[in-house]
Amino acid sequence: MSAEALQQAFFREMDKLRRGPKRIEPLDLAEVTRKVGLPPHEAVLQIRKCTPLGPQGSGDMFDALAMFLCHLCEHGNVSRALEYTTVPSVLTARLAERNKVKSLSYVAPYEHVAEVLRVLFGATAVSIVRGTTELKKHAGFDVIICAPPLGHRPEGQSHADGFGGELVRQLVALLATGGTLYWVTGRGAVFNTRAKQTLADLRKLGLSAVATIEVAPGIFPNTMIEAVVIGLRRESTTKRFVGALRDLETAEPLASAFLRGPSRKEGASWAWLDAEDQRTFAVLAHARLLHNLKPRGRHTAETLGSLLLRPAIKKADTPVSDEDRAATFLFVPEYAGSRVTADLEEQTVRPGAVYRLPVDPAKANPRFLARLLNSPYGRQVRADASRGMTIQRVAAPELLSLKLPIPDRPTQDRIARIDGDIGLLQATFRDMQDTLDRDWARVLEVGEQIDALKGVLDIERQIADWWRELPYPLATIYRRYHVSQSPRERLDTLLHFFEMAAVYLATVGTSHVKSLRKDWQEVMAKWLHPSGAAGIERADFGFWIGLASVSLKDANRIGSDAELRTSAFEIAGPELVQVASTIGSLGKATEVLDVARRYRNSKVHGGSLKPSDAARLDRELQQAVRDLYEMTASVFRHFELVRPSV
Asked: What is the per-residue pLDDT for 131?
């Protein structure tokens, strides 16, 4: 029977159970999955979904952790494996299906859990026991996986840490020489004093922590606590593996990187550190983010306080003292996400919530500092120094302690001057737009001004060569458009380019939402199957534009909403959240794509098109090409999403 047929049979049996008078228990589910023939690992996922054992959701992170651990067992010369569990959601169910591990045992201290496991695995060679004493005669497991309950402290065990350390102490006696014990627990064990003492005690017994893998929420029943997998071995090691398991796709590559052993190379989700280095991968990822955001060029690291005339700062609503009358000021709102200015008149935050910093003119240009603190790097370091769950504020001492990359004074002045020139150009463009809105008689004058600027910037050449920077497959289509000779072929290719741009933006938006939201399945189900409208099954140009619009708008909201941003940070890390904040701006491009869609539907469809008409429509669509370039080129260039070979 196919996997789809098995699923349908399971759902039919579940419908019968739901119509019954009693509450559905894990044992009932286990018997149903066994009856229809679901493999154990699928049965485990169904138990998590359909009973109060786990949080609402798909169980993707639990499955990712199971894949990670099973890959370690299957490719790590493991013949005997043991898992300690207090719930029926075992992580190693796949091992019983693939027969790559000769002996698979479970310690299930609660009878109801053991009973469910016996049903799940049936007459297989899996061994299920109630306590570790039953296994002492059969010690020597190559891999032990311990997933103890969180917060449990047995009476009479003063050394219990609430993370299951007392169970780990019992299980290490069953570990074979050269074997590995994987302790699956809450991420707080990395920082908790008692858990640290447990690790110290294990070191005295000769066990070293060889791996620390952070796991996104979704592992523990009825919680959204982040997890960690701590790998322990009886060996003295000079290196330690750190990583982050965030989704199904990273499970096997992460396990393979650990099995290969120490390497100088760093992966996107893992790295090898010196054994004494206590940093986690989250710390490394954050350091990578800051490194990527930091402006390049010669500079020295200076604290913000060292650039001031006096370290004592006051709020902007207090009177300026006589000694500060001649000072130049920097105005920094206490809210981490607000804009820094060199002029109080430009502030949008009330003066009582704005710090007034007297800048030493010999050391820094206030306008340069405002530019730096408003940049992606500056916003990130301010966010790192902030406190508060709902409203993030930066206290004065933390603000003065911010370390910033500071170039020499002439470079600061040049940057400030260029920034001012850009502001003037933007103001000029706004004035031109206002002129066109009010007085069409001046269109020739404004056009000449624009042509002069375009001649200097060579914008037309940049747009023509855009294919060099576009991601694949847009680059190929855009290049074919420029080399086509037939007017009708050129027009068709250009319209195809616009439609594929909608598909591409929809893919970018939905992939980021999937990576950053816990409830991505529910959200995307509404987008892909909208009520009262055609869904993904009948996707057309308009559908892709709509999907791109809602997904990119949601990505932008994730980057700006405090609650969603915190959740996304836990799921995917800081770097991807920063990317999502930027790609959200691509949503504006959907308005341009809708213009192209209307052109295609009203002027191109419905019969033959003369070459002269095709050439005319091509010329009319050039403004849409320029608009799309303006809205997307800088983002594509910044992230280099997928570059064509040139």
From this structure: 83
What b/e string do you get for 42-57 counting C-beta neighbours within 10 Å, with b at 16 or more?
A: bbbbbbbbbbebbbeb
What is d(CA 535, CA 113) in angstroms, rounded to the nearest whole number? 42
Same domain, 229 and 360: no
- Per the CB < 8 A criterion, the answer to whether 232 and 172 are in contact is yes
- Contact between residue 334 and residue 394 where contact means Cβ atoms under 8 Å apart: yes
Identity of the highest mean pLDDT range in 166-170, 406-410, 423-427, 468-472: 406-410
Answer yes or no: is pLDDT of 561 > 90: no
- The answer to whether residues 261 and 340 belong to one domain is no
162 and 205 co-located in one domain: yes
Cβ–Cβ under 8 Å, residues 631 and 460: no
pLDDT tens-digit readout, 289-314:
999 899 989 999 999 999 998 888 89
Stretch among 128-137, 254-263, 438-447 having the lowest mean pLDDT: 128-137
Average pLDDT over residues 166-176: 90
Q: How many domains, in total, are found in the chain? A: 3
Least Cα distance to 117 among 99, 104, 98 occurs for 104
Last residue of a domain, one of 287, 306, 336: 287
Query: Is the four-CA dihedral 565, 568, 573, 579 of positive or negative sign?
Result: negative
Phi and psi at residue 144, to the nearest 5°: -125, 130
Please classify residue 308 by burial: count the beta carbons closer than 10 Å to its beta carbon, then call 0-12 exposed, 13-18 middle and 19+ buried: buried
450 inside domain: no
Q: Are residues 614 and 557 in the same domain?
A: yes
Residue 326 has pLDDT above 70, yes or no: no
548 close to 587: Cβ distance less than 8 angstroms: yes
- Please say which residue of 234, 258, 287 terminates a domain: 287
Is the confidence at residue 540, as pLDDT, over 80? yes
Question: Is 430 part of a structural domain of the chain?
Answer: no
Q: Which amino acid is at 13?
A: E
Pairwise CA distance, residues 471 & 635, whole Å: 11
Tell me which residue range forms the domain holding 366.
Answer: 294-407
Q: Is this model's pTM higher than 0.70 or not?
A: yes
